[in-house]
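Work Package 3 (structural annotation) set out to generate three-dimensional models for the target panel prioritized at the project kickoff. During this period the team completed the workflow that converts sequence records into discrete structure tokens, so that structures can be stored uniformly alongside our sequence database. As a representative example, we reproduce one entry of 399 residues exactly as it appears in the project archive.
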Amino acid sequence: MTPASVSITNLPYWESGTRKIRFLYLVGENSFQLTKPSTNTEPVTPLFLGADLFSNTDVRSENRPRYHGKFAKKGLATKLTFASDFRFEGLRLPCSQNSLWFYCVHGVFRVAFELYSKQEQLSILESFQDLWKSHINDDQLNSAYNIRLQLDTKPPENSDQETLLGSNQFSSNVSVHNEDQSFSQDAVEDFKEVTLESTSGPEDYSSSVDHDYCFQIQAVAWKPFGLLAEKLYNIANKMKCKQSVDKTQGETILKLLYYVEFWIDGHVNEEKLTEMVMLLLQSHSHGYSIYSSVLLQAVASWLGQQFYEANGSVSHQVEGFKMRNIEHIKDLPPAEDLASELFPEAMRTLLIHWMGLSEDAATWKRLSEYPIVLLILEFANHNLITGVAHVLYSSLICR
């Protein structure tokens, strides 16, 4: 990415006691400004940088995602994902995640009263109360926004600070970054998503490795399927940042992308879906405990539900068989043939592999144990055919 294609944004900050909290204005759902818009054609919400709110608190950086998620569920915080050509003075973002957490003014108060000392809470109350009153009826924030545009590309001048919030009464709380302004290294955003550092002016950013947000690929036309196109665009950017990819991981990702392409083209069928599901299961099935695997529990639950919902069609199949063979009910075919005729292949396949009776099993083993498979299928589907099943079922019910 060339320096000319990069937008370096210098966020203004709000002073509250010893804290300097950077902020911006969210305009609509995909743009922002550093100064308060003069017109209100779209919803305008002041948002405050989460990294600054959590600096100098007892919350460790690795625990901050949990806090952000908690506040996001309440509509008090949101993750802004910026287009790849945005950079922020004083902030380092890894190329894989060009995103920052921000809080609305209500969220600022919640963070303050949960994490700050009484003196800091008082400072927040004094400096934010008028802003809070003016936004008391704001809607809750979405959990995330995709930001593609900055509406005011020229940073606010010092002489215009009082216009940032549209009223002189707030001017003492609002400032813009000076070139020699630095922030505490303690304000490190979660998962190294954001790192605060000292800055020495915009000229440093053109060559900074920390701010190399990856090479820019051809811009996506944001028309139909905007979110899908944006996600694919972000994946392409992330791949350009990767130094190397494990061979197996690369093959898995490539096959998944092939599947996505088939789906986009409308060519997805059950065979392609099967390939993708098996690919995912096989790539994530190692090292899990058979007693506690969440993946196995989810697959088993889904499969059991499918089989339960198929009970009506199985019952219909069994009743038809009984009607056709009413004269020969005591002279039934072998267990394997009977199971194949009456029960879905998926049910039989599950039990056969579970009991070690696949095609590789010895013939004597299949012949001796297949009646057990048939018996389980009869019980599980509540459709009894054989005499053994009727006798055992009656015995169990009587007890």
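The chain has three domains: 3-211, 226-283, 295-398.
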